[in-house]
Amino acid sequence: MRKLNQSILGGDEELQDNLLDEPEGFCSLSPLQRIYGFAACLVASVVCIFLSLIVFVKPIKFAVLFTFGNMLAVGSTGFLIGPSQQIRMMLDPVRIYATAIYVGCVVFALICALWIHNVVLTIIAIVSEICALIWYSLSYIPFARRVVSDMMIRFFGTEM
Fold this sequence. Notes:
Helix content: over 70%
Strand content: under 5%
Oligomer: single chain
């Protein structure tokens, strides 16, 4: 708390630059608090995804619940490794395109569900969101995207 007060009152210039990077910084949590935050986000994610399956016949409600569930699941890992590390890993050159496509699909799904209210576009957006989430998740497993690409070429004659 002392460091937060110093940064607000302007006491330490270097502290302001590294507030998110320091373990004792503004966003620091104890290991137990990190696990609780991760578990809470993950449980909320599972609940949203389960509820989305209940309203599966209404694509717009399904899209909203499913998308929020996915965002909570991806965000839950931020509790374990910290928000700045999560963002650095998402913007890593290996997965920057997968992250951009996933975020774009999430935004597209929410726009289709909340503003456009078009069932067909919402279904297309959700299918693309699922594919983007799979591709994004594969970016964390060494050589997984290469194996999937090789399998797609072998089975369907096309590359992902």
